[in-house]
Model the fold of this input.
Amino acid sequence: MRDAEDLIVRLRMANWDLGAFIRRDPDLAGMASTLTGIWLVEDAGLLLAHTGDSRAYLLRDGELTRETRDDSFVQALVDRGLITSDAAWSHPRRNIITASLSGADGDVVRVESRAAALGDRWLLCSDGLTDYVPEAEILSILSSAEDVTKAARQLVDVALEASSRDNITAIVCDVESGAPYETAVPVLAGAAAHRYPEVLEAGLATA
Done:
């Protein structure tokens, strides 16, 4: 990835493709997707792209910070001081989102630069995790898991134990030194692994 402008162009193309699928199949009317992702850029920094209520967290020096703002009805209530953050966690309308990728020209994705520091651990996750597992428990798992695969699996398991009724996605990655492993294949677990086995076989898995 060269820079933020390059990423924005690619995201617009992907959203156009999504819209094309929807226009070809009436059964897909109303379909939309959240997006949270990080990309390495040529200057060794990171780009964070986000829309919807999936989240990105950064664990750095033992401190966990949420790096995205939920595009949701409940987050708007919090921003206006109408409810507290604690109340938002269990609000009955917490799954109503206010931004997404739907193939429409007006869809908006925020792209921001982030510094990359050795030892950073990133978590990209869906609300099937964060609506059911407190951030304190997420911090504990990310801090104690010895590698990214175990961290992701433990997070999914904890959400399942909490009786999550939504899609549970957890992607964990560490910032390390050295050249990228261009031939490495990401590990998919859960529903994605069963639905897209050909992606794993081809070594083209993405998140």
About this structure: Helices lie at 4-24, 73-79, 85-89, 127-130, 135-144, 148-161, 191-195, 197-202.
